[in-house]
Design brief:
The complex is a heterodimer.
Chain A: H1 5-32, H2 36-43, H3 46-79, H4 85-91, H5 94-97, H6 100-111, H7 118-121, H8 132-157, H9 160-168, H10 173-202, H11 205-210, H12 221-230, H13 234-267
Chain B: H1 2-7, H2 12-19, H3 24-53, H4 57-65, H5 68-101, H6 107-115, H7 122-133, H8 151-160, H9 168-178, H10 182-194, H11 197-204, H12 209-238, H13 241-247, H14 257-266, H15 270-306
Helix pairs in contact in B: 3-15, 4-15, 5-9, 5-10, 5-12, 5-14, 7-9, 7-13, 9-13, 10-12, 11-12, 12-15, 14-15
The chains are: A mainly alpha, B mainly alpha.
Chain lengths: ~270, ~300
């Protein structure tokens, strides 16, 4: 038997409690000092509902776009050879490495009226920066690597024989993709979607720079929490934080179930 | 596939090719679509940071970065990362050792709990510390509460006038929280794959626990550890939301690099904001470079083991 079990597990539990669990418990402790009526009043206010709508709507659309393009990028990186492929593979992780504040100001700059992309969209009547569309663009940027990185290994492991079998049974390439390949990568694709969605829900740094931040119009939930804190409304901020935390926990559970499902799929061969 | 291979052995290869790949025009269309998407969403924003940073010339760039407030922001960022990365590194190694070398009940729950900070909004990651140490918080209630939590700690903090929120310790704590899982996250799958056979062999040959760890485990995990540290460091230096909640935005005192970027941006000093931001963009590029290099290293290690 190897040594160090008690020491390593003991330290792990101690540090986990000190840094994560006890501080998180403070949120629920603070929330419990609110009456039920106060809590409901805060989390169902029109301002809160407007924030939920923008946060969930933009996050869902961004995760959906990422699911589509993430699958495309993963497919291209796994299946085809072209020059610059290694560089492309490395750059996919940029949103993980680039601080969100930097992403926020640079996206706001290129999508503003005089920006590199904004100037081409302006004649078409499309405004991105300081609109909900801008929130969507920022959330798409930060969620991009999730789908690529979850789908890529599954595509790499895909046994070419099942595609050959499908082809030899008379399926054309599209049918093989739709009926054989897609069902195999579906759990990974859903996991990637859920990860990108979960990340987008909590995102703050990149969105505050590209959104109008106007209450009822351009406020995401984390920004609403922030503005409650700025006006020293700790109870209100905590109530909203509890709602977001519960949603995060539910998503985390979903992702774990999806990953378990996905690993079962891979193990079935 | 057996039939194809035996009936038409000469043509088998081309048949196989055609049946499991796409026509050239489809391939080129897919590659182009992926390239255009990545160019618009990733490459353009990255280039834009550097172009904007030098919009007023090299002298302005240097001037912005050598300003006292910029320098103190850089210093504070280095302090926050310098404390949080080693702490989370030690934790990551301990957690990975316990989880991958031993079997115990509740392992999956522990794994989920370690991942928790990843799924929590940065704003909430900052808020938790305000609720523990702030004037309205758990320990801050000391003065106006009959039953303070941990009275000795609250009293000590109060007597020493040791400020945590809106001061440097709060920034460090928020940074530790958001970067908490990174090293553990990298090490656990790696050490799981390596198993414990080599460590057990070392023990049988007479090595003690520390010798086993330093001479067997550490050399095996060094690249994964380096990668985890690099990612942890990138997030520690770039964290914005959590740090913003606890900082108080006192210029030259409680501003990190990302917060300094925000201040310059809100003052409409866009070129200055991008100049400071370019430091962080450079850090991101270095991080990606090291990541690719580590992946290349581990891939060649695997190759060596498979074809010696």
């Amino acid at each position: 038997m190897l040594p160090g079990f008690k020491l390593s597990l003991g330290y792990t539990l101690f540090y986990l409690s000190l840094i994560v669990l006890i501080p998180l418990a403070a949120v629920f402790w603070k929330a419990s000092s609110l009456t039920w009526a106060q809590f409901i009043h805060t989390v169902t206010s029109p301002q809160a509902f407007a924030a939920y709508r923008l946060t969930f709507g933009a996050s869902f659309c961004a995760a959906a776009v990422n699911a589509f393009f993430g699958l495309l990028v993963a497919w291209v990186l796994v299946r085809y050879n072209f020059s610059g492929k290694k560089l492309l593979d490395a750059i996919v992780d940029l949103p993980f490495a680039l601080p969100t504040a930097v992403a926020g100001i640079t996206l706001a700059a290129i999508y503003s009226e005089h920006g590199w992309i904004g100037m081409w969209l302006k004649p078409l009547g499309i405004k991105v920066a300081f609109t909900p569309l801008g929130v969507f663009v920022a959330l798409t940027f930060i969620g991009l690597p999730f789908v690529v990185r979850t789908v890529q290994p599954v595509l790499e492991d895909l046994d070419p024989e099942i595609e050959e079998a499908s082809a030899s049974l008379g399926a054309n390439r599209w049918q093989t993709f739709w009926r054989v390949i897609l069902p195999t990568v579906r759990p990974a694709l859903l996991t990637g979607f859920a990860l990108a969605f979960a990340r987008a829900l909590g995102e703050y740094g990149s969105v505050v720079f590209i959104s109008s931040n106007i209450p009822m119009k351009g406020q995401i939930v984390p920004l609403l929490i922030m503005s409650e804190l700025d006006s020293f409304h700790y109870g209100e901020a905590t109530a909203l934080a509890v709602v977001m935390l519960l949603i995060s926990f539910a998503l985390l559970l979903t992702i774990n179930v999806l990953q378990w499902w996905s690993s079962r799929f891979q193990g079935q061969e | 596939m057996q039939t194809v291979a035996t009936l038409a052995p000469a043509k088998g290869h081309t048949v196989r090719r055609r049946s499991t790949s796409e026509p050239a025009w489809v391939r080129w269309m897919l590659i182009s679509a992926a390239l255009v998407f990545l160019a618009l969403f990733l490459v353009l924003p990255l280039i834009s940071v550097f172009v904007q940073a030098f919009a007023k010339g090299f002298d302005f760039y240097i001037k912005t970065l050598s300003e006292p407030n910029a320098l103190s922001a850089i210093k504070l960022t280095l302090i926050a990362a310098g404390i949080s990365v080693p702490l989370n590194c030690v934790f990551g190694v301990a957690a990975a050792w316990a989880i991958t070398k031993f079997n115990f009940r509740g392992k999956n729950v522990l794994l989920t709990l370690i991942d928790l900070p990843f799924s929590i909004s940065p704003v909430i990651s900052g808020l938790v510390w305000v609720l523990v140490f702030g004037t309205q918080g758990w320990l801050g209630l000391y003065e106006n509460s009959d039953h303070p939590a941990l009275p000795w700690l609250a009293k000590w903090l109060n007597d020493e006038d040791f400020q945590i929120i809106f001061a440097v310790p709060g920034i460090v704590l928020a940074t530790i929280f958001v970067t908490f899982p990174f090293v553990a996250r990298e090490l656990i799958p790696l050490m799981q794959a390596q198993g414990r056979v080599e460590e057990e062999a070392a023990r049988v040959l007479g090595a003690n626990g520390w010798q086993t760890f330093w001479r067997v485990t550490l050399p095996n995990i060094k690249w994964g550890l380096l990668y985890g540290v690099i990612l942890c460091n990138a997030r520690a230096m770039g964290e914005f939301g959590a740090v913003s909640v606890v900082s108080g935005h006192i210029r030259g005192k409680t501003n990190t690099i990302p917060l300094h970027v925000e201040i310059l941006y809100n003052e409409y000093n866009f070129t200055g904001a991008f100049a400071v931001a370019s430091l962080l963009a450079l850090l991101a590029l270095v991080t990606l470079g090291v990541k690719s290099w580590v992946e290349f290293k581990t891939a060649s290690l695997v190759d060596q083991q498979e074809n010696p």
